[in-house]
UniProtKB/TrEMBL annotation:
Residue ranges occupied by any GAD-related domain in the UniProt entry: 26-123
All copies of domain T6SS immunity protein Tdi1 C-terminal, residue ranges: 173-230
InterPro entries assigned to the protein according to its UniProt record, in alphabetical order: GAD-rel (IPR014983), T6SS_Tdi1_C (IPR015002)
Annotated transmembrane regions: none
Name of this chain's protein: GAD-like domain-containing protein
Organism for this UniProt entry: Roseinatronobacter alkalisoli
Coiled coil: none
Pfam families (alphabetical): GAD-like, T6SS_Tdi1_C
Lineage top rank: taxon: Bacteria
């Protein structure tokens, strides 16, 4: 029997590693999160194909460090082409958004996608959420920052990557936290390989309870395409919380896809 290789974060500081630099936000990402694994180099020609589609700082990071698994497979910097079929299904027939406007650069261990668009900037695609598939599209408009008023695209993406460690370590001793779900599945099934995620069986949108023991290794593209067939994703917007000190809360807008007159 092959030995299962799990994950171990016991020697890492996941919750307190300082603020992201405004001037050089990508510089210390691997110092904070540890070395990438399954690294694929990115050529200058390939990086140039995405010029104007993702922030320049991310392209420079690709060229310098490559793409691969962060935090032992908790999240993956990926070739945008990998998840394009999923994005095409998500936005198929929508009168407002076009799949060609979004470039995927990261997915996490459950298959939540982070994409970028020149017009709308941040886009989060969560097709395996408990109650319904959800898509958050930020723009158009500036990226808000509670300290500086707005964020540059480089700072936003780099900061998102850096705080993956905080997200993993947050509530790490609580059941059903990201830490508990990811480490439980990894230590039972082995570390994720490129193109894999942990999927729930049955799906949480088909009555599954979402226990760690319900997770299995699956192909990220196939699993997410399956979930696009269950229902059209709901477009989520954000509105200010009255008296919330600048914070916002999500609210459903409409289903993505063709609209009935």
């Amino acid at each position: 029997m092959n030995k299962i290789t799990g994950v171990d974060f016991s020697d890492m500081n996941l919750t307190d590693y300082g603020e992201t630099s405004r001037e050089r936000p990508f510089d210390d990402i691997l110092d904070v999160l540890g070395p990438m694994s399954f690294v694929e180099p990115v050529s200058a020609a390939e990086a140039e194909r995405y010029r104007g589609r993702v922030p320049d700082g991310l392209l420079e990071f690709w060229r310098r460090s490559g793409r691969g698994a962060l935090l032992q497979g908790f999240a993956w910097l990926c070739d945008p082409a990998l998840l394009q079929p999923v994005v095409e299904e998500v936005f198929a027939g929508d009168p407002e958004y076009d799949a060609a406007d979004f470039t995927c650069y990261l997915y996490d261990y459950e298959g939540t996608i982070e994409a970028w668009g020149a017009k709308n900037q941040r886009c989060t695609i969560d097709l395996t959420a408990f109650d319904q598939a959800k898509v958050h599209v930020h723009g158009p408009g500036p990226l808000r920052d509670l300290q500086q008023g707005s964020r540059t695209p480089d700072f936003h993406v780099a900061n998102f990557l850096r705080i993956l460690g905080y997200r993993l370590g947050h509530d790490m001793h609580e059941d059903y936290s990201d830490y508990h779900m990811f480490t439980s599945a990894s230590n039972r099934l082995g570390r994720l390989e490129p193109g894999e995620i942990f999927g729930f069986f049955p799906s949480r949108q088909m009555g599954g309870e979402g226990y760690p023991e319900d997770m299995q290794k699956v192909g990220v593209v196939e699993h997410l395409l399956f979930h696009t067939q269950l229902d059209r994703p709901t477009l989520i917007g954000w509105e200010p919380i009255p008296g919330g000190g600048g914070f916002s809360r999500p609210f459903p807008i409409r289903k993505l896809g063709p609209q009935l007159d």
